[in-house]
Amino acid sequence: MKKYGIMGGTFDPIHYGHLMISEYIRDEMNLDEIIFVPTGSPPHKKDILDASIRYEMTKIGILENKYFTVSDIETKKEDTSYSVDTIKEFESILDGDLYFIVGSDTLFQLKTWKRFDELAKRVEFIVAVRPEYMSTKILDLELSYLREKYESKIHLIETPLYEISSTDLRERLSSGKSVKYLIPDKLIKYIEEKGLYKETYGRK
Q1: Neighbours of 4 (CB within 10 A)
Q2: Do 161 and 153 contact (CB within 8 A), yes or no?
Q3: Any residues with CB less than 8 A from the CB of 15 and at least 6 apart, and which?
Q4: I need a surface site. Which of 38, 97, 167, 203 has the fewest CB within 10 A?
Q5: Which CATH number fits domain 2-163: 3.30.1490.20, 3.30.70.20, 3.40.50.620, 3.40.1350.10?
Q6: SS3 letters for 168-193?
Q7: Do the Cβ atoms of 81 and 39 come closer than 8 Å?
């Protein structure tokens, strides 16, 4: 049976941090495929580029990896997107096991997600953890809570440190600074051709 990693995010824009961590996890967990899922209308973020543009950017960003695909399962929706509904849709079209990839910061937010108890029964979680957080008391306590209360299946993967902030990238793009080696070259070209991120920060 195939093993699918689900990598969600606003991807505004997708960058090498997303790509590196996803490839590292794919290899460590022996996943057959990583599916990138740009959010449609995330309930916690409003000031982002249109979903269709972020979908196109993600599609361009993953081109160089044969194990990466992108789904419009959320960007085609007009209403608010919730992870549990997305996973239910994937279950109806994919024959395999689903692994939901999150960062260590998101781990502490999982219990607040809509219908998390249902989500926890449908997927296993893979948490990308930076080396300095692998053996901390607060992380251990949260894992114990999620496993005991929700019977969550959670895998911790220590990933290399590759800090890139999407906010910083957007600011660099708006001010005309270089983002080479932070974003794939083909995506940089697309962003420049479309004139993206200029109006977002008050530039024409």
Answers
A1: 20
A2: no
A3: 61, 164, 166, 169, 182, 183
A4: 167
A5: 3.40.50.620
A6: HHHHHHHCCCCCECCECHHHHHHHHH
A7: yes
pTM of the model: 0.92
Count Cα atoms within 13 angstroms, Cβ side, for 103.
12
Condensed to tens digits (0 to 9), the pLDDT of residues 180-192 reads: 999 999 999 999 9
Q: How far is CA 145 from CA 64, 66, 99, 170, in A?
A: 39, 37, 20, 36
**Phi, psi for 183 (deg, rounded to 5):** -135, 145
Q: Alpha carbon of 120 to those of 80, 100, 182: distances in Å?
A: 20, 10, 33
pLDDT tens, residue by residue, 88-139? 999 999 999 999 999 988 999 999 999 999 999 999 999 999 777 666 889 9
E strands, 82-172, are 96-103, 124-129, 154-158
- Does the CA dihedral 57-12-179-181 come out positive or negative? negative
